[in-house]
Amino acid sequence: MGLKLKYEKPVTTARPDDRGRITLGSSLTKDVSRYDVFVDEMTGEVLLKPFREVPAQEAWFYKNDQAQKLVAEGIVAAKDSKLKKINLKKSSWIDDVEDDQ
Question: What would the pLDDT profile of 48-95 be if each residue is shown by its tens digit?
Fold first, then answer.
């Protein structure tokens, strides 16, 4: 596997407890819900790949390329101060946004 590390110097050191567990500390686990663990069979080096879980009601966004494109365009427009006022009370406001495309 040959791990390629960005830093040659350790971020921290840790010793396993009597049950073989290693605590990473809050700075390495903040906003992380799980890690995939990879072990190099030749050297025994361990790589932890952190993951953040997405709430089920938000998962659709990551599967919808069009929604991601619109959000990215909105962020660029906001940065460029090119904002458009819309009436949120109007039931078909989304149609106006789509018509502008």
Answer: 999 988 888 998 998 999 999 999 998 998 898 887 777 777 655 566
CB-based contact 73:66 (threshold 8 Å): no
Q: Pull the structure tokens for residue 92.
A: 């078909």
17, two tokens:
């407890």
Residue-range domains of the chain with CATH: 1-53 (2.10.260), 56-99 (no CATH)
Cα-to-chain-centroid distance, residue 13: 26
Q: Pick from 3, 76, 12: which is nearest to 38 by CA?
A: 3
Q: What is the pTM of this model?
A: 0.51
